[in-house]
Structures are given as structure tokens and as C-alpha cells.
Amino acid sequence: MIDMRAPVTDLPILLQDVGYRVRDVAILDGVSLCLTEGAPTVLIGPNGAGKTTLLRVGMGLIRPTAGQVTFGGRSDVPPSRRAIVFQRPVMLRRSVAANIEYALSTAGFARGEWPARVAELLDVVGLADFGHRPARRLSGGEQQRLALARALARDPEVLFLDEPTASLDPAATKAIEDVVRAVAVRGIKVVMSTHDLGGARRLAGDIVLMHRGRVLENGPATAFFAGPRTEEARRFIAGELLV
Q: Pick from 41, 42, 15: which is nearest to 29 by CA?
């Protein structure tokens, strides 16, 4: 008998009036946001705007101190269908391939599947010839791509990226952006933060502008850059500091 039930999904991820406080400091303040399938959602805003905390809440690493987060209409869902790459990923003291094998083992893949999966993931991130190299001897951009491969080893539905191109040169930035595009084409929802407005223009389907823990603007990237609705957005796009 064929099971006609729809597959379980974590999307949409819905944040409803979410707050997150540390002592008396509001890191997130009344954030309402709906993350749906499709092109990447890019979070922009100055340092301290709450972008990283929002990614952690969406991943399920921290619980909001106010409001509610649901995943596909469900709450308290384990992050088995989500993965996150932090701005400064830690490389295991192993080869590039062994880093991915470790991720595959923790994701529950059978050992017999590892060689094909490792080869596929290295190809996706442009490190096909790097499998035997020590991971900690890679360049910063190469390590970031390896971190992306480890995250993809979980076969996620949603991939959160925290400043994936920070401090990288143009060539390394392009390599990361190429991976993000390839991942999005595969149907994985990418939610990423960045300070790079050029990267946001190139990658985003939707833009979320944050400042002081609040969402100031949220909508299609083309509309945001063509006609920002708030003064803060206009200033930010113009390169002025938001304090």
C-alpha cells in the first residue's frame, strides 16, 4: 500500500514575536519572520544587530526567551534536517576526507556509503583533489568550503551560514558563493548572514535587514535594493554606519 502522506519538513520555519535576552540586554526583540523554501534568505545589518543569534534560534541551538518558533508547524523539533556553519569553523586534526567521514558517521550514514558521499561532497565544494590534505593546513577559504561539505554531509533541508565570506579575498569569496548557488539549486534552503552587500545582491532571494535586535525590513532582494522603505535601510545601503 502506497503511503500518500506528505514527507515531514521543517519548512516553513516561523518565528512569532521572538525575543532573546541575556540578563537585561535584548539581543532579539519582537522578531517575526517566515523562512520558506526557495532562493537564499540573507540577513544583513551592522555588528550586534542580532543576526548570529537569529541563526542560532532558527537552527534550534538556543531557545527564545519570548515568543515561539515552529518548524513545519511543529515545535521542539530536533535539528536533524538542519545544519549550520559558523564564521570560524573548527577543523578536526584529520585529513579533509576524514573530516567529512566524521560528519557522515555522526549523521548515521553506513560506512559503506562513505567513499561515494565523500567524493560527491568534495566535488560540490570544489575540493575534489584535496581529500588527503591535512584539514588544518588549508587556507581560510578552503576550510570554509570544507565546513560546508561537513554540514552538507547531514543531508539538510535547511542550511544556516554565519558570515561565510568574512575576511576572504575575492577569489575565495567567489568560490563560497558558487557553493551557495549550487546548494540552493539542489533545493536546500540557505539562510545566511553577511556584511557584504555585494554578496547579498548576488545571492539573495529575500533580504532581512536587522538593527538592534529588530527586523527593520524583510522582502524580495530586488525590491529592497531598488526602493528601501526605511531611512535606516537607505543609509545602510549607502554605506553609512547604523549605531
A: 15
Whole-model pTM: value is 0.94
Domain count, the chain: 1
C-alpha cell of 220?
Answer: 524580495
Find the farthest-apart pair of alpha carbons in the chain and give their distance in angstroms, rounded.
61
Q: Residue 53 and residue 129: Cα distance in Å, rounded?
A: 35
Cβ–Cβ < 8 Å for 238, 80? no
Instruction: Please give the order of strands across the beta sheet that includes 25-35.
Output: 25-35, 13-22, 66-71
- The answer to whether residue 20 sits within a structural domain is yes
Side chain identity at residue 31, one-letter code: V
Residue 8 counted as domain residue = no
Q: What is the mean pLDDT of each run of 10 residues along the chain (243 residues)?
A: 57 98 95 97 96 98 97 93 94 98 95 96 97 97 98 96 95 97 97 96 98 97 96 95 87
Does a structural domain hold residue 174?
Answer: yes
Q: Which domain holds residue 124?
A: 13-237
State the pairing for strand pair 206-211/214-220: antiparallel
Residue 242 in domain: no
CATH code at 146? 3.40.50.300
